[in-house]
Design a protein that fits this description.
With 303 residues, this protein is of the alpha+beta class. It contains 8 helices and 11 strands.
């Protein structure tokens, strides 16, 4: 195996960055590295990078030592120019992303979503590729008084690559097989849509290994099995997930204010009891918490 640095050391958001590549026969791994750069990088950083999926390697990194943050991607060597472009944009927008994560600077979700919808709608319709907006951004589009930190998209295996192509100018992680903490190995990408100073992260992926579809799953790569709502956003037609998805997730994350705001939208729309029960059954909430949510928040509709 050979390892070499493709870029760096580079500075950004209080971190010292490198881009490296490991080649072993036909296997190629690109790695984004980041370490606390101190005063030389206008540091210290506002916060750690685990919120963006970075992890510490199990052994000390040859470039950054024992506390180096890594994001790894499996891609052909020929994709190096695309990886380098995403690497550079990532470090250029990192200051803004950290401010949104740690300084309570609002993410520019609505302007970013407008750009996403404009770029995706026509081409994906022509290609007959299904896609939708999920998470708390979907709840916001439906009228919930919440402040999403990013935009989550659902789509098919074909759609993952097509969306990456349509948002190529904004990619901060290349389209590739990679490990998303709490999700597993996926084929996905991330983008930061907006300027270096303002915008929002956008994420989309599907599992690498085909999985048996879970009833009403949100991110499994099967849009036809997701409960969606057709609505409008700034005069543009858009499909979003029903608010029950965001409601259960807000409860799991112990965000009571967001849960109350989303519950108001669920009540206004009339709850989907079958969907709610399926989401509660696979949630991390305790049995009493599930019963209380069902009864106290929307029990008057479900009986």
């Amino acid at each position: 195996m050979t390892t070499e640095m493709l870029s760096g050391p580079d500075l950004g958001a209080g971190y010292l960055h490198q881009l490296s590549i490991e080649r072993e026969e036909v296997r190629t791994t690109f790695t984004f590295h980041a370490q606390d750069g101190g005063a030389d990088a206008n540091g210290p950083p506002k916060g750690s990078l685990d919120v963006f999926g970075f992890v510490h390697p199990p052994t000390p990194c040859m470039f950054g030592g024992p506390r180096c943050w890594h994001r790894r991607f499996l891609l052909p060597f020929a994709d190096a120019p695309h990886v380098r472009r995403a690497y550079n944009r990532n470090r250029f927008v990192l200051e803004t992303m950290l401010a949104q994560a740690y300084d309570q600077v609002p993410a520019g979700v609505e302007n970013a979503l407008e750009e996403v919808v404009d770029r995706l709608t026509g081409p994906l319709e022509r290609d007959r590729v299904g896609w939708y907006v999920g998470g708390s951004t979907a709840a916001r589009v439906l009228g919930a008084a919440v402040a999403p930190g990013d935009i989550d998209l659902g789509t098919t295996r074909e759609g993952v690559d097509r969306i990456a192509s349509l948002l190529s100018d904004y990619l901060i992680e290349p389209i590739a097989p990679t490990d998303w903490p709490n999700t597993g190995i996926v084929r996905g990408a991330r983008a930061f849509v907006g300027t270096f100073q303002a915008g929002a992260r956008v994420e989309w992926s599907v599992p690498i290994e085909p999985r048996r579809p879970v009833p009403f799953a949100e991110w499994g790569g099967h849009p036809e099995g997701v409960r969606l709502v057709e609505t409008e956003f700034r005069g543009r037609p858009i499909r979003v997930t029903r608010p029950e998805y965001a409601l259960v997730r807000a409860c799991e994350k112990r965000r009571p204010e967001a849960a109350r705001a989303i519950a108001e939208v669920v009540r206004r729309m009339t709850p989907d009891g079958e969907l709610l029960d399926a989401l509660l059954a696979r949630s991390s909430l305790t049995t009493p918490e599930r019963a209380a949510l069902r009864r106290q928040v929307i029990g008057e509709f479900l009986g």
